[in-house]
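I had to read the description of the data format several times before I understood it. The format is easy to grasp once an entry is in front of the reader. For illustration, here is how one protein appears when written out as sequence plus structure tokens:
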Amino acid sequence: MTDKTRWNLCKAGVGLMIILTFTPLITPEGIYQPFLWGMPYTLWAGIIDAIILVGLTWLGTRVHPGRND
């Protein structure tokens, strides 16, 4: 797999995560259960979402096609 393909997959992954962040899957209205380690659903789902976005950003810095220019 080339760096350009990996870069496009990173872009698609970030776009998908942005869309999912604003759907009821991550931020449902009026839902605070289930709890995980004392944190309500919206908080821990948002934290996981942020970790995934940071990971995709880090990966994107490693596979960006113009990083060696």
